[in-house]
Amino acid sequence: MVVAEKESSNELLQIISSFDHSSLACNPNQASGLLEALESENQIRGEYLSGSDVLYSLEDLQLGAKGDLQKLSPGHRVLLTLGEQGVSHFCYKAVLLDAKQQSGAFSFRCGVFIVPKTRSHEWLFSSEEGQWQVVESSKAARLIMVLLEASHANADMEDIQKDLSPLVKPLAPADNDKGNQIPFMTASDGIKQRSVVYQGSSSLTGPVVIEDVVYENTDDDVSHSLPFRRLIFERTEGLVQSEALLTRDGLFDKSVYGAEMKKASSSSKSKRRGALKRNNESSSKMKVYHGYLASSYHTAIISGFSLISSYLESVASSGNRVKAVVIGLGAGLLPMFLHGCMQSMQIEAVELDPVMLNLARDYFGFTEDKRMKVHIADGIQFVRDYRNLYAAGNEVLLSSNGSCKLSDAESRSTAIDIIIVDVDSSDSSSGLRCPAADFVEESFLQNVKDTLSEQGLFVINLVSRSPAIKDAVVSRMKEVFSHLFCIQLEGEVNLVLFGLCSESRIEEDCIPDAALKLDKLLKSEHPEISQSITDAAKKLKRLK
Question: Keywords assigned by UniProt (predicted)?
Fold first, then answer.
């Protein structure tokens, strides 16, 4: 029993508890949850007491409400409102941030970063930790982050900047060069041309957009252009769910596309950042080509198969099939690539939303056959049910054999060799963009391990800008899996994690040879793709 006494004081005070972890050892999970709730509440109260969430007006700041506005104060953060009726067209909510380290080389003394309404709820812009990351990457000594709202929906960005210019000038530090105009920045996706081919909604996923895009050219060496088709959930705008290369009739002509693929695969930049130009082909004739990996994290996922390449080789050589489960179908691009290049793989995709399966079929060329099956189910429940089925099957086999160990054939008939979790989170404000929080709970991770074969591999695509969240997920996975590896994508937020069930571990210096063994198993038509997978495998790092 927990007894809480409410005081009659009008002041907002910290909650004081008379217990700690040691006194609540009877149920550690409940005790931990209770203490976390108290700590969270006290943090909110502490921020309020410190005034960190108070909105100040420009007049308040000019009168010294938060110190001398003309001087830079490292680590200074103030929430404020800009504009008022009769002075500006709009009112704005903004955050003033002075870089924590003032000794570095700054590109400018003061800058403005405009966050569109569709992205203002994201962790990167709505949380204090995320905002400091934006400050660091902006190279500004003082950054004024302006968060647009619904009232700005119909305004042109140019009009917004004109409206803001006189409002932000008084916020510049005294040593700012008066001759220089304060620069404006905003989040951009680098799209040169965009054509929406589908716009609809699902009761589970919400609004969905499929678009054909052409990126801004940032590579002068690229002489030809490649268009891409993208799947986007509006609930996580700014995060591309799936991205596929479009070719004429979905076929590959080396004379047209070969040079671009080679240059694109050798580039460390993501295709989302604009490495390619516009294609001159009519979009109506263009179809998805499944032999190309447009998403760098897909390349990283497959490169992790190197960790069990010896096992995969033995299964293939014995005439058996590697059983893989992909949770999160999306556009079906990863399953289709695996289906095409690994003939010995049996793939089962698990998708919660039936609308996604229809979109994958209609717009991304996804197909099913005897080696590719789709289950419309909850991924967590699917793994739990499969674990129970696997456990029940083992008991039956053990009973009929009268022995304590299954034969390899019997074990292989039910066990899964590879489980990949590639799903997004519907709560983008939590700081965990991928996967949903339930997929990194210890109970699910344990079910995954119980479902995998003895040499099984668990892969999860983790997207979060919060170091604390990443550390928490890694810590949980270490508790469950014998060995843990990762690939941090260069220039990306994605951290791809690999959990191994086997007690015997592979040393990092053996990974290049293991990657070559995987390369022989992959039947890719393009050496450039195989090379990019091999190169990614060399970035595998063991998490100790």
Answer: Methyltransferase, Polyamine biosynthesis, Transferase
In which residue ranges of the chain is pLDDT below 50?
Answer: 219-224, 255-256, 259, 262-283, 396-412
Identify the pLDDT of residue 151: 84
Q: Is the dihedral of CA 136, 173, 107, 147 positive or negative?
A: positive
385-415 burial, b if ≥16 CB within 10 A, otherwise e? ebbeebeebeeebeeeeeeeebeeebbbebb
DSSP secondary structure letter of residue 505: -
pLDDT score recorded for residue 480? 94
**Residue 208: strand pairing partners:** 200, 233
Backbone dihedral region for residue 328 (phi beyond 0: left; psi -120 to 50: alpha; all else: beta): left
Return the pLDDT at 188.
64
Q: Which residue has the tokens 């791809």?
A: 496
Cβ neighbors of 308 (< 8 A, separation 6 or more) are 417, 418, 455, 456, 457, 500, 502
If we measure between CA atoms, which residue out of 508, 464, 453 comes closest to residue 484?
Answer: 508
